[in-house]
Amino acid sequence: MIPALPRLPEAPGLIEQRGYFVVHAPRQTGKTTTLQALARELTTEGRYAAVRFSCEIGRATGDDYGAAARGILERIRDAAEATLPADLRPPPWPDVTDASLLVAALTAWALACPRPLVLFFDEIDALQGQSLLSVLSQLRDGYSNR
């Protein structure tokens, strides 16, 4: 496998600054593979808890932002359980309204995790309408309150 850092040389600096970034390229060019490798490298280095997961499940939810958020959280938990040691995995998600589910869940995980979280939202363009707006709004809200 090609190391991730040469493919995304700016990523470590942006992560260190607690920034966010978008990886945009044509289909089948290695974006997912690169993000998986980068998440693995960041976690292995021992400084971050990094996970790449797909938002593809949101494609079928349409404007049901609660279903989209729950689906994304399921994918996050699945990815964390498959790739992170037990002490870095998320706690049970909080019982809150759909409108704040994503931000509340990620906040709870960030508070419980002994390392800073790095989350790679792959295929976020699968979300549509109100689901996309809700997810992006909650991410922006959580980002500004980090």
Give a quick account of the main beta sheet: strands, pairing sense, barrel closure.
2 strands, parallel
Indicate the structural class: mainly alpha
Terminus-to-terminus distance: 33 Å
Q: Which stretches are low in confidence, meaning pLDDT under 50 for 5 or more residues running?
A: none
Helix-strand sequence: HHHEHHEH
Give a quick precis of the structure.
With 146 residues, this protein is mainly alpha-helical.
Descriptive report:
- By secondary structure, the protein is mainly alpha-helical.
- It has a domain of 89 residues.
- It has a two-stranded parallel ribbon with strand order 1-2.
- The chain is globular, with a radius of gyration of 15 Å.
- 27% of the residues are buried.
- The mean pLDDT is 91.
Question: How is the topology of this model organized?
Answer:
Layout: H1 4-7, H2 11-16, H3 31-44, E1 49-54, H4 65-83, H5 101-112, E2 117-122, H6 129-144
Helix pairs in contact: 4-6, 5-6
Main features:
146 residues; mainly alpha; two-stranded parallel sheet; 2 strands; 49% helix; 8% strand; globular
